[in-house]
């Protein structure tokens, strides 16, 4: 079996592979680029495995006139820039000792040892420069074809090495798993039994994984399994996945939006626990704060067209209903409406709190009129 596509034929990819091979070393594309190419999905990051040491990689890159950055040289990783694109090159490794997200590794010259330390079988697939795929564990191609996200070796061993793999298990299940089959039973059981290990993960890591998972076309089955295994509650106490599937249905062809989906999950201190940016936290707070409003036009006015529409969908998903008839036009009308009264219209007769209260009352009257009341009507 071979992988094909413009990505592997790109001159900069072939240049980096060639400089390693011509230097007498193995040069194998690995992980996501191979997996996604076999699935017919877009390839972004280029990861390469080799039996060359980091020092040797840097020397070969320098001799070829390419910039090499020791981004993780203690773990065997060097990033080589070719064609203005980064190529992450990592020496074959085997684990000597693991503890959480940290590990003592030894360099290896055997692809089998390198494959054995990877997380999932579908990520332990390699490809030569000509696209020929290698499956050192003998299970990666079959699992990928079956859309079966399976840990390499014993799930408990892989999880103890890095508890982030619990979240990665659900994220990969959301993106690459077969929803009809559900998560791998052994992997799911191991995640449930070791869920307490999530407490040691950083908020940045939790946030990154949740964003990636919720960006999947339909993460609802994976998140439901995550809740059943007791993992969702460890990440977001109080979160509930029941309304996520209805929301995904209501979204239709809309681009997946992790913040919209977080809003329907709920939970305590979400912005803090997932280390959301200020903009993300503000959006989440606005979406959840607007759910008491049942008028689409008001949601459009308060939140704008995009998040006004999001709030309508979230509310419908939580209530288990369909959005009201004509809601899209109502949201658009609200988003386009401009309150015709300004503070200057009430000054100097009013100032301070009295001014603010009067403006708010006039705005409420204007909204109640369906945004039809004119400035003159409101002021009189």
* CATH fold-level name of the domain at 1-145: Beta Polymerase, domain 2
Average pLDDT number: 94
Can you summarize the main beta sheet?
7 strands, mixed
Query: Would you count the extended β strands for me?
Result: 9
Quick one: overall form? elongated
Strand arrangement across the biggest beta sheet: 3-4-5-2-1-8-9
List low-pLDDT spans. Answer: none
**How many angstroms does the end-to-end distance come to?**
78 Å
- At the first level of CATH, what is the class of the domain at 1-145? Alpha Beta
Number of helices: 20
Helicity range:
40-55%
- Oligomeric state of the chains? single chain
Which CATH architecture of the domain at 1-145 would you pick? 2-Layer Sandwich
CATH superfamily annotation of the domain at 1-145: Beta Polymerase, domain 2
Structural class: alpha+beta
Radius of gyration: 26 Å
Describe the fold and architecture.
Helix 14 (258-265) crosses helix 16 and helix 14 (258-265) packs across helix 17. This protein has 380 residues and is of the alpha+beta class. Helix content is 49%, strand content 12%. Among the domains are: 1-145, Beta Polymerase, domain 2; 340-379. The strands form two sheets. It has a seven-stranded mixed β-sheet. The protein has 20 helices and nine strands.
In short:
The chain is 49% helix and 12% strand. It is an alpha+beta fold and 380 residues long.
Quick tags:
380 residues, alpha+beta, Beta Polymerase, domain 2, 7-stranded mixed beta sheet, two-stranded antiparallel ribbon, elongated
